[in-house]
Design brief:
Blueprint (H helix, E strand, L loop, with lengths): L1 H18 L13 H25 L9 E11 L8 E10 L1 H13 L1 H13 L3 H4 L1 H20 L8 E11 L1
Antiparallel strand pairs: 1-2, 2-3
């Protein structure tokens, strides 16, 4: 409703500007200024109604959801003193549709470098580092930041929207 009022007010101002070019004593063609202004208002209201119908008929654009670029699995031994513990992750990278192909191509070209960094990084983590939601979030942020740096050096913002863990097992 407020859009309608704003549009109607704007159109009224435009109508008044076009009708105000008469000299002070000159009458509009209809003879009475208030009749002329009321006719302009009715005309403007009809135009606003047509615009509202057009706006209502046009569906809003749906937001574009990011698409996943699969990366694959990585299994590493965690850095622990007593027991053998391992972490297995399956990762996918979320990227917006316009850059998804670019991200997928970069992942394919630099997969060895990405895997090498990921294995080194994960192997240096302790059980405490990768446990719980805070640990998962820290790991997700580190992977996003470093993969973005490797895949797109010097580019801002990072085209990788999110790191998705399709599998995350600590044993």
């Amino acid at each position: 409703m407020s859009v309608r009022v704003a549009v109607l007010s704007g159109l009224l101002v435009v109508a008044l500007l076009f009708t105000s070019d008469r000299s002070p004593g000159q009458q509009p063609p209809g003879g009475r200024p208030e009749v002329d202004a009321q006719a302009k208002i009715r005309e403007l209201e009809a135009r606003v109604a047509r615009l509202e119908k057009l706006l209502a008929a046009t569906p809003p654009a749906a937001p574009v959801a990011p698409e996943a670029v699969p990366f694959g699995d990585v299994v590493v031994n965690l850095k622990v003193d007593s027991h053998n513990r391992y972490l297995r992750v399956r990762i996918a990278l979320a990227a917006d549709a316009p850059v998804r192909q670019e991200v997928a191509g970069a992942v394919t070209r630099k997969k060895a470098e990405l895997r090498s960094w990921l294995i080194s990084h994960l192997s240096d983590q302790t059980l405490k580092d990768v446990s719980g939601s805070a640990g998962v979030d820290r790991l997700r942020d580190a992977v996003k930041r470093e993969f973005g740096r490797i895949l797109f050096p010097g580019r801002a913002p990072n085209p990788i929207r999110e790191v998705l863990f399709e599998e995350y097992i600590v044993q």
